[in-house]
Amino acid sequence: xxxxxxxxxxMTQIFTEHGTVVPVTVVEAGPMTVTQIKTVETDGYxxxxxxxxxxxPQRVNKPMTGHFDKNEIAPKKHLAEFRPEEGETYExxxxxxxxxxxxxxxxxxxxxxxxxxxxxxxxxHGHHRGPMSHGSKHKRLAGALxxxxxPSRVFKGNAGPGRMGRETVTVQNVELVKVIEExxxxxxxxxxxxxxxxxxxxxxxxxxxNK
Length: 211
Fold this sequence. Notes:
Blueprint: E1 3-15, E2 21-29, E3 32-38, H1 40-43, E4 47-54, H2 62-70, E5 76-82, E6 95-96, E7 106-112, E8 115-119, H3 121-125, E9 162-165, E10 168-180, E11 185-189, E12 199-204
Antiparallel strand pairs: 1-2, 1-12, 2-11, 3-4, 3-6, 4-5, 7-10, 7-12, 8-9, 10-11
């Protein structure tokens, strides 16, 4: 499975031993704690639930407080569950840290993209603008949406103005350049989705993994 939750800290650059500049995203990842083990007998499927980042006890409701107290685990802000691979075993309270990841491997990083509010066709879908000359008043408008006589309606799924961003996005096959275990940091080549401070899920790449 090799999965961990982290917080995006921002971007910087590092230099390789050959002097090449590599842009990297800094992610403070883990440590995660195993908070629940689900089985076919108890829950109908096999999964492992993890908690990330400590929460103040007074900000956790009673059902979740009981959930954590049952296994004597400190309350967590973020919970996520993952399907373990065949042969993997976990125990309640087990820690998952950046030390479990190897530099040079390929990663899939999932996060929530930046929200851009309501946008028009040009920014949202990359449409072309209208003519700028002769007093045109339709420079950035959507234009005709459907024929008037038939079908006399707008088909569903037309690319139109609307909310842009704030969607779950996964970037695939990005390189894990460096792991700094002492500070729980992962340096990932290139950009990853989301704002600074946003939560991202990091796992070994499903496709294109280096052997």
